[in-house]
Amino acid sequence: MTAFDDLMAFERETQALASIAGRLGWDQETVMPRGATAQRGEEFAAIENVLHARRTNPQVGDWLAAISDADLDAVGQANLRHIRRSYARNTKVPAKLASALAKATSLSQGVWAEARANDDFARFAPTFEEVVALKREEAAALSQGAEQGDLYDALLQDYEPGGSAADLAQMFGALRPRLVELRDKILGADQPAGVTGTFDEAAQMALAHEVASAFGYDFELGRIDKAVHPFSSGSGQDVRITTRTSATDPFNCLYSTIHEVGHAAYEQRIDDAHLLTPLGAGVSMGVHESQSRIYENQLGRSRAFTGWLFGRMRDRFGDFGIANEDAFFAAVNRVTPGYIRTESDEVQYNLHVLLRFDLERQIIAGDLDVADLPEAWNARFEADFGVRVDKVSNGCLQDVHWPVGLFGYFPTYSLGNVYAGCLHQALREAVPDLDTGLAKGDTSAATTWLGDHLQTFGGLREPKDTIRHACGFEPSEAPLLDYLEAKFGAIYGF
């Protein structure tokens, strides 16, 4: 065997072990007994020790040094690029720190869940301070020798390789004025009616399964469960999603499901040849989010698809206060003030993300102490949304990301929205009769295009190149803003 063959065989085993760790995380979020939190923390630490040892094994460095890119095809070169990047990053983080982070974030997740349920930030603060200290330590280790040298940028590379806070801040700065202007116009207009009544949980889950199938989710390779915070987990032949239900808000369940199916479809449709290799997963969280958002919003909240969904909901729930398909389309796309990012409409969603982006940069830089986070969050939220936060579960404790150490993750949500806007423009140009299928609940024209132009390639290209290749043009925020202004201008009559 060549050095490359040896390296890839070793990498496949590492990827398989990482999949096992991911399954532990899925279990913790869904069916793990509440009393198992401490033991699960030990289990995560143990497997992280094994993974870190493999990812920093000097033999990997020897193999990399022995391999010439010129001897490899494009797939081999892409695999090598990912492994080199991962090896360079992992060798900067001491094994003791990697293990401490795995244990601390696992324990923090359980403490956060209890604190959120009881609206008790003080209960969570000491645990969170430990997580923040460890993430700052990790960022300092990762930024050593880097050209950027910025602590936040060092963490951002785990989610959006090649991205920088400066570039994101520039993009978000271009988003904000038009979003705020659009929101103000909408909130000054007459609001459409929403759904009324109560919606049986079992019927919601049954419809969620139907909608997931309509978007091409393969239940032979996945399953749907319930979780406090919906997520997608896994890759290749085992890709699981979760959703949640609300007795008075069926859209929470249905659109969380469509969102997570977007993530899962990306993973399920990657070329089988890339299974258990660095190319066998989504290339970045920004690109990943582009899939979940285009499924959820540009497709799932379109006039054509909501017309079909209206009929399916009437079949399941009877009369729920909406008279016809047009009124239902408006109800699905209502813009109303709210605290929760995951329940926000398309217009205000990115404003929720920008808040988190700015605050987490301050936290990592040491400019914002954990103890001051609730006050800083509440002040920023009131300034951005004109509403006072009533409790921490609606404020800085609403998301699981910071408790589990995912600093640098939040901006990829808005980046994904930008990418989704670009993909939607390209999709509409490529499939001009797209709405014909969507009106029948048939998303195959859209999902096939996305599969062929983006999903099948996995991590073959760098993130921005992945979007550029799929769209045929340079990604920017303009298509998203144009789409939002056209859609909501029509709904709200301006």
Q: Please identify the top-level CATH class of the largest domain.
A: Mainly Alpha
Strand proportion, as a percent range, falls in: under 5%
Distance between the termini: 66 Å
Number of helices: 20
What pattern of helices and strands is seen along the backbone?
HHHHHHHHHEEEHHHHHHHHHHH
Protein name: Metal-dependent carboxypeptidase
Keywords: Carboxypeptidase, Hydrolase, Metal-binding, Metalloprotease, Protease
EC number: 3.4.17.19
GO molecular function: carboxypeptidase activity
In short:
Keywords: Carboxypeptidase, Hydrolase, Metal-binding, Metalloprotease, Protease. Its EC number is 3.4.17.19. This protein is mostly helical and 494 residues long.
Please provide a written account of the structure:
With 494 residues, the chain is an all-alpha fold. It folds into two domains: 3-142, no CATH class; 165-492, Orthogonal Bundle (Neurolysin, domain 3). The protein is 63% helix and 3% strand. The protein is built from 20 helices and three strands. The protein has helices at 3-30, 37-55, 58-66, 74-90, 95-118, 121-142, 151-156, 165-187, 201-214, 250-268, 285-299, 303-317, 325-332, 346-365, 373-385, 411-430, 434-438, 444-453, 463-471, 478-492, and strands at residues 224-226, 232-235, 238-243. A three-stranded mixed beta sheet has the order 1-3-2. A hairpin with a 2-residue loop joins strand 2 and strand 3 (238-243). It is globular, with a radius of gyration of 22 Å. The N and C termini lie far apart (66 Å). It is an enzyme of class 3 (hydrolase). This is Metal-dependent carboxypeptidase.
